[in-house]
């Protein structure tokens, strides 16, 4: 006996049904999950702002920016895994899907334990100095950052499970797990940040402890579902549990460019923090940036990342099924959905900026004034970033992961950092100059990504999996 339990069938409407419905079927649970997930950051910042102050907000914002730089390399494996899973799903190959997800798990486990935890722990103090964080911000940020680095494997595995299931056409299970993660995280953070009963108030580091515990528990639940046979991806006793180096190489082949892209983007973010740290009102500007860009703007970016995942999954599956024109239409539709959402949030940024900052306990007039100016720029920038991200999803989902890397180097490093350097050396750098550099970078990224996708080279990429006829 193979020991294989029942496995759910693939949703063939993604490659055969109405194309807008196929995109929406993957997009809405993913977008909703990302918005709900973003709420936990909102709650963290709000609690820290009320119980610690804007120094705590700056510490969380700076730490998360650094944490993302470190983990993005590990998470890039999930892009490579998703390319292979989507192609195999489009071809109707269950066993290849199961095997690819398992190999992605092995690779990410090793990377998390051998790269993320040790390097993150020892490098944390130097990284905080790199971004010009003040002594008060560093004191709050160091324990937070180290806790996230060492305990971040639970969050890594959660993202791996979600990416695998969405690439295979199941976006609802990651949504359920994401809702559970957010609810548990919020509850734990309330306890650890402010204290409850015998648990003392831990302030900023309490937010990290709650996140680590919640990620570990929810990931364990997700792996239990994989082994139960109730999902579209199944790990069963009869499968080969040994490493498959051919698949792992393909995962790295498609994932590493995405990792380098993410590192480039987030290093640029860290360097922007360094420029912000050089301003006369550095702590106030970092606090405004942490709330405005890291949290409020995330309602656009995380929504767009959800649409990016939907575009990647639907385009990848349709290319695997031999339907390249349908894959292209899916990406165009995802982009239009993103523009509508970005415009809605942009109106809110313009209409009620003081109220939005007030949610996080930001009442300091200097911080709110800087934040108000930032949100005006971000209301425009959101339109460009959503186009850039959805078309990036189309490229990455079909296997073109190098193009977005080259584009990010130009648009997220060359333009914003170059402009800030020039301004600093000539007329003098201001917060408005930094916000201008961010918008110009997003504009360039959107234009280059759309142009790359329209060239159509993604149509002929071979991912190295066995060729099968599409399942009717």
Describe this entry's structure for a reader:
The radius of gyration is 22 Å and the shape is globular. The chain starts with 12 loop residues before the first helix and ends in a 17-residue tail after the last helix. It has one domain. The protein has 472 residues and is an all-alpha fold. Helices cover 80% and strands 0% of the residues. Helix 6 runs antiparallel to helix 7 (172-194). The chain has helices at residues 13-16, 19-51, 54-90, 94-130, 135-151, 153-167, 172-194, 204-228, 245-277, 282-296, 298-320, 324-351, 353-358, 365-397, 402-425, 431-455. It is built from 16 helices and no strands. The model is unreliable at 468-472 (pLDDT under 50).
Features:
mainly alpha, 472 residues, disordered C terminus
Describe how the helices and strands are arranged.
Layout lengths: L12 H4 L2 H33 L2 H37 L3 H37 L4 H17 L1 H15 L4 H23 L9 H25 L16 H33 L4 H15 L1 H23 L3 H28 L1 H6 L6 H33 L4 H24 L5 H25 L17
Helix pairs in contact: 2-3, 2-7, 2-11, 2-12, 3-4, 3-5, 3-6, 3-9, 3-10, 3-11, 4-5, 4-6, 4-9, 5-8, 6-7, 6-8, 7-8, 9-15, 10-14, 11-12, 11-14, 12-14, 14-16, 15-16
């Amino acid at each position: 006996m193979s020991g294989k339990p029942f496995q759910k069938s693939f949703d063939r409407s993604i490659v055969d049904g109405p194309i807008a419905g196929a995109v929406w079927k993957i997009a809405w649970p993913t977008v909703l999950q990302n918005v709900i997930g973003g709420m936990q950051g909102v709650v963290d910042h709000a609690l820290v702002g009320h119980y610690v102050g804007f120094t705590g907000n700056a510490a969380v914002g700076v730490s998360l920016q650094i944490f993302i730089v470190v983990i993005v390399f590990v998470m890039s494996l999930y892009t490579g895994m998703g390319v292979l899973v989507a192609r195999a799903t489009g071809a109707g190959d269950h066993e290849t899907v199961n095997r690819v997800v398992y190999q992605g798990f092995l690779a990410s486990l090793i990377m998390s334990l051998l790269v993320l935890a040790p390097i993150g722990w020892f490098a944390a103090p130097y990284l905080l100095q790199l971004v010009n964080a003040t002594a008060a911000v560093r004191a709050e940020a160091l324990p937070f950052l180290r806790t996230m680095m060492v305990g971040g494997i639970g969050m890594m595995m959660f993202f791996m499970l979600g990416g695998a299931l969405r690439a295979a056409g199941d976006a609802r299970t990651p949504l359920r797990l994401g809702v559970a993660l957010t609810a548990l995280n919020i509850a734990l953070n309330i306890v650890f940040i402010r204290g409850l009963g015998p648990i003392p108030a831990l302030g900023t580091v309490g937010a990290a402890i709650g996140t680590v515990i919640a990620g570990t528990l929810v990931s364990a639940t997700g792996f239990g579902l994989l082994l139960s046979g109730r999902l579209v991806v199944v790990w069963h006793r009869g499968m080969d549990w040994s490493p498959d180096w051919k698949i792992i190489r393909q995962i790295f082949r498609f994932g590493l460019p995405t990792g380098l892209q993410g590192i480039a983007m987030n290093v640029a973010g860290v360097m922007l923090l360094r420029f912000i740290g050089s301003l006369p009102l550095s702590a106030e500007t970092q606090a405004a940036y942490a709330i405005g860009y890291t949290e409020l703007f995330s309602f656009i970016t995380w929504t767009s990342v959800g649409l990016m995942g939907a575009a990647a999954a639907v385009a990848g599956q349709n290319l695997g099924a031999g339907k390249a024109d349908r894959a292209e239409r899916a990406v165009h539709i995802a982009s239009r959905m993103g523009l509508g959402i970005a415009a809605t949030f942009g109106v809110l940024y313009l209409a009620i900026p003081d109220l939005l900052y007030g949610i996080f306990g930001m009442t300091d007039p200097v911080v709110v004034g800087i934040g108000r100016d930032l949100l005006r720029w971000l209301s425009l920038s959101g339109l460009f970033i959503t186009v850039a991200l959805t078309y990036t999803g189309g490229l990455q989902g079909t296997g073109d992961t190098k193009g977005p890397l080259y584009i990010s180097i130009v648009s997220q490093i060359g333009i914003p950092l170059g402009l800030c350097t020039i301004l600093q050396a000539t007329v003098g750098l201001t917060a408005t100059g930094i916000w201008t550099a961010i918008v110009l970078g997003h504009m360039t990224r959107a234009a280059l990504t759309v142009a790359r996708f329209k060239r159509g080279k993604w149509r002929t990429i071979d991912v190295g999996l066995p060729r099968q006829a599409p399942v009717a």
